[in-house]
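Weekly sync notes, structure subgroup
Attendees: PM, AL, DS (notes)

Item 1: joint prediction request from the bench team. They want all two components modeled as one assembly rather than separately. Inputs as received:
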Amino acid sequence: MNMIITILEQGLIYGILALGVYITYKILDFPDLTVDGSFPLGASVTAMLITRGVNPYLTLPIAFGVGVLAGVCTGLIHVKCKVRDLLSGIIMMTALWSINLYIAGTANVPLFSQKTIFKNDFTSSIFKGALAPYATLIIVLIIALVCKVLLDAYLRTKSGFLLRAVGDNDTLVTSLAKDEGNVKILGLALANGLVSLAGAVFCQEQRVFEISMGTGAIVIGLASVIIGTSLFKNLSFLKATTAVLIGSIIYKACVAIAIRQFEPQSMKLITAVLFLVILILSMDRKKKVKTNA
Amino acid sequence: MLELREIQKYYNPGTVNEMCLFQGFNLKVEQGQFVSVVGSNGSGKTSMLNIICGSIPIEAGQILINGDDITKKKEYIRNQKIGRVYQNPAVGTCPSMTILENMSLADNKGKLYGLSLGINRQRKEHYRELLAQLGLGLEDKLDVKVGSLSGGQRQAMALLMSTMTPIEFLILDEHTAALDPKTAQLIMELTDKIVKEKKLTTIMVTHNLRYAVEYGNRLIMMHQGECIIDKAGIEKEKMETEDILKRFNEISIECGN
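Output from the run, pasted for the record:
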C-alpha cells in the first residue's frame, strides 16, 4: 500500500514535468535538454526561499516564473543566436548547474524541520486521522490536475493554436504574419515553467534539495510522454495531457517494481533500459499500423 | 501596386559556385493585375516570389508596396498584406489540427493571437459555407484532422485559408503542379473566382502554359533572370499556347539543349 502511494505521488509530480516535456517534445518538436537544469532550478529556488521563511505556497508560482526565465533564455539562444535546438538546451543545462549551486548555497539543503506545502499548520488541521497518510498524494493530485486543466485550456486559445501550429508547420505561422521565433520562445518558457514547478513540488515532498536531482529528468519526462501518448493513442476521448500524466505514473511503477529486484545503484541503468524498451515497443506499434493500413 | 527596382541576387556569393541570377531586375505590377509567370527551370520565377515575400535576402535593389519600401522588413511582417500558396499542399495547412481549427487559425490573421478561445462558434457557419463552395464535401468533416485529407483537398484549403482575411497580394507558387489534372482545374477555377471576387493583385507561377494563357490579364516569360515576354491586356488575350511554346524552343536552342 505504501509503495502504491509513493508511486502515485512521484508519478504525479513527474507528471507535471512530463506536461512540460510534452509541450517541447510533442507540440514544438524541440528536443529540450534545459529540463535537466530547470527541474533542480525550481527545487533550489524553493529550498532557498523556504529556509528563509517564505510561505511554502508562494514558492510554487515563483518557481514557475524562474523556470519561465530559463526557458526564455534557451529560446533566445536558439532563435536569436541561431544555435541548434539540442545545443541551446545543453548550454542552458550546463549553465544552470552552477546557477542552482549559487541559489541554494550548497549542493545539499535539507528541509526536514521546515514548513512545506505538504506539512504545515493548515494541512495538519485538514488531513486528520485516516486521511493523514494520503495528505501528500491529495495535494500533489490537486496541483497536477490544476496544471493539466490550465494547459488544456491554454491549448484551446488562439495563442495555444499558434503554438500547436509552429511545431507542425512553421511556414504557416509566418504566413499568418506571426514571428515563429517568438512562438517557440513562448512554448519553451511555458514548458520549463512547468518543469521548474515540478522541481519545487518534488523537493518539498523529498524534504531535501540535491544538486544532482535533475540528472536524467529529461529521460523520465520523455519516457512518460512516449508511454502515455503511444499507449493511449487509440483512445480519442482521452486527452493527450491526461495520457501523459498516466504515462508518468506507469513509468514510475515500472521503475519501482524493477528496482525491488536489483540494487539501488542500478537505478539509472534500469531507467535507461526501460526507456529503450519503451522506444522500441512504440516503434513496433507504428510499423504494425503502417502494414495494416 | 508592387514594384521591384534594380534587384540584384547572387547565389553562393564569394565562392567558386557564385551565380548571378538577377542583375538589375525590374518589375511593376499594377493594382488588380493577375500576372501569370512562365519560364524554364532556374529562370528565377520562384526566386522572384521569394524576394517579394522576403524569404531570401537580396544583394541590392528595392522592393516597394504601394510606394513604401519594404526591402528591410522581415518575412512575417510582409505577410500581413500577402497571402501565399505553395506548390507543396502540406505547407499551407497544419496536419495535426482539424479543419475547423485550421480555418479558425487562418481567420485570425492580422489580429492578436491572445488568450481568447481559439474557435469562434459563431463563425462556424461561415467556414461551412466557404468549404461548401469547393464541392469537396469538406464542410461535413470539420472535426477531421487535415493530415488525413488528400493533396487536392489540402491545397483547396490552403487557398481558402490564405485568402480568408483581407490581403492585397496573392502569391501562387506552382500551386497546381502537385495535383491531378481534374483537381488542378478545380483549384485553378477557384483561384480565378477568389481573385476576381476580392480584386486581389496576383502573381502566379505555373508550368501549365494553358493556365498561363487562359487565366490572368498579363503574361510574363522569364529566362536567366530577365523577362523575355511581357504582354498585358489585349496583347495578352491574343496570345496562344503555341506562341509561348515557340519561344520556349528558341531559348532551348540558345542554351544548346
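Discussion: DSSP finds twelve helices and two strands in chain A.
Action: AL to compare against the crosslinking data before next sync.
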